[in-house]
Design goal:
550 residues, 4 domains, three-stranded antiparallel β-sheet, three-stranded mixed β-sheet, mainly alpha, Rossmann fold, single chain, binds glutamic acid
Amino acid sequence: MDKQELANLIFPNVTKTIEEYEKMYPERNLGENARVTRFAPSPTGFMHIGHMLTLVIDYVLAKKSNGVFYLRNEDTDTSRTVKGAVEYIRSVLKQYDMNPDEYEYRDTNETKGIYAPYIQSERKEIYQAFIKHLILEGKAYPCFLTQEEMDVIREGQARDKRRIGIYGRYAKYRDLPTKEAIEKIKKGEAYTIRLKSSGDFTHKFKFNDLANGEMELPENDIDIPIMKSKDGLPTYHFAHLVDDHLMRTTHVVRGQEWISSIPVHYELFKTFGFKMPKYIHIPLILKKDGDTIRKISKRLDPEARMSYYEEKGYPYLAVIEAIMTIANSNYEAWRENHPDALFTEFEFSPKKMSSSGALFDLDKLDNISKNYISRLTKEEVYLETAEWAKKYDSEFATILEKYKDYSMAIYNIEREQKKPRKDYTYYSEIKDKTWYMYPEYFISATPDFLEYAIEEVKTILTKYKDIYNEKDTQEEWFQRIKELCDALNYASDRKAYKENPTLYKGSVVDVTNILRIALTTLTTTPDLYSIMQILGKEQIFARFDKVIAK
Ligand code: GLU
């Protein structure tokens, strides 16, 4: 009776029982091996690469098994909530086309899925029903330790090299008679709710993590807080229990930092008699730094933030590919055999995930990305680049809008062929590699003819203007350059030049070099004939004339 009074005193507004919630959120009706995963970030900052690894694994596990992938907003730590974080997470999911099957978006008032709410701060009543249940069963209790008292306990434990926490004799209010607890609460004393742990630290239990294998861990015996005094919201541990149980999650993919909490989670699930989900604790993400390999750092490494990939304009699928290669050691081999398959067709195997750390290599991403972009059509490259530019380079966006077909022609140089050219690593690089094609940018450029005498350059350009014919095929075009070479005493045959260099002023290479520099300022470019076809006679002559007039 006392317990009932205590429970009602603490939770006067909680009317539903946990059995009612069980009925409200029934088992999911899915195929036998269907996996239910969730992406459950806390909106406490930007999204980093560890989130991405978690997300990709969650997504692949669910999609490959015709299961469910849902998004949960773990916003119980209200003091650390960052404005805009939720929206950002959502935008990343959308960009990467890994949209959740179930979600709740507060700003647009959209909810999908019968396990709602999917925002933890809206689930307070549900958590409290479960906590109330524990109080009624005598498995949780109000603890009146003040912050100062807890500080003293912690300092003492640290000094005596004991385990930190409220357990055993430190759990002062664990056995407080219920009547007294009621009196204290009525007097207005502050409290938190703690689990009344029934574990024994000297006992071990076996736990199987799908990635890390079987572990032997000591039972939890700490009376962990399950509800915070400040706002009546649960701690992460308790929310994890309630949510992943009621939302019928089958697989929890989360960071390694949670491994140390397994004993607590194990006890919580056991206390309620709920089946634990399967766990995949993902490894730390490492990077090569000179000769050493270290943990990737949100503070030091720009590539730790997902915004980095967006700003650079990496294709989303390339980023996912790179993430998949660190998620599973057999992914690359699979990809070789299935070049056109979707990444969601891959059977992710947690055992093939490195437990010691996953080395993320930007060079590898660049390679994947180059290959990826080289296989796109010119229209795709154009659209993606324009999309990127709209966000990050409005001036270039305007140019792209003005020169749509022209830009596509540029992107098509050495593209739709067996071995396409691979010169674009990400979309932000495209301007750096094609700027000279646009009159608006070229106008302020000054070609540098290196060791070539400027009078000689002028002669070549002037003579070339006389013979240039826009309608020439590539062979005819080259033939004409060779004829020009012969006329001006440049060897049209490279071999002949090599054998007797002193007989000539130079070779055909020098002549094409001069044309190339005059038209682009560069000494290496994609196919010059194609460039000239795209520029057109008018622009070509204008560029030559600018040099000739100097
Ligand atoms: N909100 C937790 C975090 O961001 C999620 C951990 C989990 O997936 O259970 O670390």
